[in-house]
Write a structure and sequence with these properties.
It contains 27 helices and 26 strands. It is α+β, with helices and mostly antiparallel strands and about 900 residues long.
């Protein structure tokens, strides 16, 4: 036979199934006919001859099956048959299919959403040219307050002139800016950057140009680059924006370019201006130092060079602490470092949810297989092999999980959108870049099918090796002890895993409750705040700034319903402040390394905030610029510096080398207040704004207005009052003090919300699994229960029997879950407040909740069991 005929023959065998079947029938018929004719020649009748020929042939249908099994793509045909059969059986069981698909969709959807965030935030490269070569340097004392990954302004200038490890470097500093001259004044996230900043990142402008060399030198023309968002929202996508003049903090700037869409680095920047560094012998400016490593240069080599340059430039005369330490970190690790641990926790949580969903699916499949025991036994008795039965059952579970995975993609889409809505700014870096794309869809489907096969394997094996004789004889009445035990183990696993998640969420909720109960030192009820930043170009002198605040306070006090007003430079729960040391007159030593907050306040501030004056008096309008200098200290300062003495009348100074006019008399002592998310009281020295000459202490100010709790909002009236005094000054942080606290702990609330959502999902899935198993147990034991009741068992006794089984399952699951939670909750230690990872009260409350849900899930099956009619139960059997 020629090669072409052989190819045609095999192609026909593969694709022309009907033709092959016709040829097979003709061939078999020919064999039978020839044997029949031979038998007739031997003297048999035609009927006997044909019967003998068929017997000698050994069975036509069996022979056909043997021939079919040798056909190419036979396995594919069997899979197709299994799929069609599974679809028919699932259509006949819509309740099972719906519950199973939704269960998998929830587990896979949650997992895919978190997988999307993890891959896009942690694994996807930053949107810069060769982003893996970008590194941030740090050269600060180990205990420098608020340093992080930064260098001093002096190091920034010196390093750029001497380093050899980087192809390019640039310093930058985040700062808020007030944009005016393009609509209403607005406070925007901004950054001051070196001239080489954009070139270093490897990005190109959408319009115009970026900064050029020399534009970050003192005395250069003021230029700015705006983000794509600002260009579209504030300038209406005007292509002629390049060359336009805008006002930033009251100074005139020329727009030279528009950044490409999506570029908001650092963090969420909308305005970039050149960073002009002028060294101040009295103050240290911290900046970020970014560099692009040269080819062939490693991070450790660059770190060693940084340390050498730091030593060669000598000790900073402004630095009186420990010597600085050189560090270097990739830009990506700095951008994502703060969220890696949180994402790891969320990933662990959704894996547990996925596992619970898989266990739930296994239980549903096991229950379904038990109900189909007679059908499976009948198929096996008709010749289906165990492998064939196993394949059909796995196909059904794969179909269910595949459909669940497809639905899970939509759950993942909704989950990512929800994350964008509820996540506070900065909680998850690069969140706006997260997309549910083709790889994520593939991941969801792969996880779903793998889950279906993995968790469907045990029920399928259990059903395929069942006793077929008993299955045919007793049908669904046979109670398989092994399956009953297996279903119970699945419920135990679900409850144990749900307890671990519930415990984690419970600890976070308990921490938040402790935060809310912390004595902050002030009374937030009825307090509304409003912050302002006064540009030095419009308010260049301390006298002008003080006059502005005085006028605004007067307008605020005139608002109807206002009880008291005040102002503070850095309000509590504002996440920012000024901290430093101070000097004490006389022989009383100040504790070594003792630092205090240094808020500047107005008369009436303590009354407006509800901060109690313990000793002495509040500031008054008489504490003006021409009056003797005064200060008020918090109670911890008084105890630390003058233990056993009255602090009133003591003298302190904020200057390192004070003159006679630099000494301040302590006129009062007030309570310590909680200043930040640490929720620990701070030591503080309060200074009157009417005596303050340093603009840095008073050009940012927060006004505090107290109204009766539950009264009407005064936010609009406060904004109007500000507009009367400074029409071009935007109102910032116009909100209640309670809202300020929630903003400060928004990241914690976000983490708690996610963990709570996952634990609630796990609890619902565990409840569904418990209900399904107990409900089927009752249905399977209906005859037994009927016999028990016919022999005298009361309804309460039957009820106790079902509840007792529930408590046994819940108790074992709880015991295993407690052991797991003891280990798992250690990962939350750094996020907890006021509670330990093994808090007994939270453990007890979580255990009671889990048992309560298990009993609730068992209530309907238990009620059904206790109301079985013995006569009807026995008659149906």
């Amino acid at each position: 036979m020629s090669l072409s005929r052989i190819i045609v023959f095999h192609l026909k065998r593969i694709f022309d199934r009907r033709g092959v079947e016709r040829d097979l029938d003709l061939e078999l018929r020919d064999h039978v006919e020839r044997e029949t004719r031979a038998n007739i020649g031997r003297g048999m009748s035609e009927a006997d001859a044909r019967r003998a020929a068929l017997i000698a042939f050994g069975g036509v249908q069996q022979y056909k099956e043997q021939i079919r099994d040798t056909r190419p793509l036979r396995l594919l045909e069997q899979v197709g048959q299994d799929v069609r059969f599974a679809l028919r059986t699932l259509r006949r069981a819509p309740a099972f299919a719906t519950v199973a698909i939704v269960t998998i969709a929830l587990g896979v959807g949650a997992t895919s959403a978190v997988f999307t965030v993890v891959t896009d935030v942690l694994l996807r490269p930053l949107p810069f040219d060769q982003a893996d070569r970008l590194y941030l340097m740090s050269y600060l004392p180990p205990d420098f307050p608020g340093g992080g990954t930064a260098v001093t302004d002096r190091m920034c200038r010196f390093y750029g002139q001497t380093q050899r490890s980087f192809a390019s470097t640039s310093c930058y500093q985040r700062t808020d800016m007030t944009l005016s001259g393009a609509g209403a004044a607005e406070r925007l996230d901004g950054a001051r950057v070196g001239a080489a900043f954009f070139r270093l990142l490897g990005v190109r402008p959408a319009l115009g140009r970026f900064f050029v060399s020399g534009e970050d030198a003192p005395g250069s023309a003021r230029v700015a680059v705006v983000s794509d968002r600002v260009w579209r929202e504030r300038f209406g996508s005007d292509p002629h924006v390049v060359g336009a003049t805008i006002a930033l903090d009251g100074s005139r700037y020329t727009v030279v370019g528009v950044a490409p869409a999506g570029l908001r680095f650092p963090v969420s920047t909308d305005i970039w201006t050149p960073l002009v560094i002028t060294l101040d012998p009295r103050n240290t400016l911290l900046v970020r130092l970014l560099g692009r490593l040269k080819g062939g240069v490693g991070p450790e080599q660059a770190r060693a060079e940084l340390a050498a340059i730091g030593r060669s430039m000598g000790r900073d005369p402004r630095d009186h602490g420990p010597r600085s330490v050189a560090k270097i970190a990739s830009l990506k690790s700095v951008v994502t470092g703060g969220v890696q641990r949180e994402l790891a926790i969320f990933t662990g949580a959704v894996v547990l949810v996925l596992f619970i969903a898989g266990v739930n699916l296994a239980n549903l499949l096991l229950i379904r297989a038990s109900a189909r025991r007679r059908e499976i036994a009948l198929r096996a008795s008709l010749g289906a092999s165990r492998r064939r039965v196993l394949g059909q059952l796995l196909t059904e579970s794969a179909l269910v999980s595949g459909a669940g995975g497809a639905l899970g993609v939509f759950v993942a889409l909704a989950g990512v959108r929800a994350l964008r809505v509820i996540a506070p700014d900065g909680a998850i870096p690069r969140l706006q870049e997260v997309r549910v794309d083709t790889p994520v869809i593939g991941f969801a489907l792969a996880v779903a099918v793998a889950t279906g096969i993995l968790f469907g394997l045990v029920p399928a094996l259990e059903s395929a090796r069942a006793d077929l004789t008993r299955g045919l004889a007793l049908g669904t009445r046979v109670i398989g002890r092994s399956q009953t035990r297996l279903r119970g183990r699945f419920v135990i696993a679900e409850l144990a895993l749900a307890f671990v998640l519930l415990m984690a969420a419970g600890l976070m909720v308990a921490s938040f409750a402790r935060m809310r109960r912390v004595d902050t030192g002030y009374d937030a009820a009825g307090v509304t705040t409003m912050s302002v930043d006064l540009p030095t170009t419009d308010y260049p002198t301390a006298e002008q700034v003080r006059l502005f605040h005085t006028r605004v306070l007067g307008r605020l006090a005139a608002i109807p319903g206002v009880q008291s007003v005040g102002a503070v430079s850095w309000r509590p729960m504002g996440a920012m402040g000024i901290m430093g040391d101070f000097g004490v007159q006389g022989e009383t030593p100040r504790p070594k390394g003792y630092l205090v907050d240094k808020p500047t306040v107005s008369p009436g501030y303590f009354r407006a905030m509800g901060i109690r004056v313990i000793e002495g008096r509040d500031f008054t309008n008489a504490d003006a610029a021409n009056a003797p200098g005064v200060a008020i200290v918090s109670e911890s300062v008084a105890r630390s510096v003058w233990p056993g003495q009255s602090a009133v009348g003591k003298r302190i100074t904020m200057e390192e080398h004070p003159g006679p006019a630099d000494w301040l008399t302590v006129v009062g002592v007030v309570r310590d207040v909680v200043q930040d998310e640490g929720f620990t009281p701070h030591s503080a020295i309060y200074l009157p704004y009417l005596q303050m000459e340093a603009l840095a202490f008073i050009n940012h100010m927060t006004y505090v207005v107290r109204t009766p709790p539950g009264g009407a909002s005064v936010a609009g009236a406060m904004r109007a009052a500000l507009g009367e005094v400074g029409p071009g000054v935007p109102a910032e942080a116009l909100q209640t003090m309670n809202a300020s606290m929630l903003d400060l702990v928004s990241g914690f609330v976000f983490q708690t919300t996610l963990l709570g959502t996952f634990s609630l999902l796990a609890l619902v899935l565990a409840a569904i699994g418990t209900y399904g198993v107990l409900s089927y147990d009752v249905a399977e034991r209906t005859r037994e229960i009927g016999i028990r009741m016919a022999l005298g068992a009361s309804s309460p006794r039957v009820l106790r029997m079902i509840v007792g089984r529930t408590l046994v399952l819940a108790g074992i699951g709880l015991a295993i879950g407690v052991l797991g939670a003891f280990g798992a909750t250690r990962a939350l230690t750094r996020y907890l407040f006021g509670v330990g990872p093994s808090d007994p009260a939270t453990f007890a409350a979580t255990a009671l909740l889990l048992i309560g849900v298990a009993l609730a899930a068992a209530s309907v099956p238990a009620w059904r069991a206790s109301h079985v009619d013995p006569v009807i139960a026995l008659r149906e059997e």
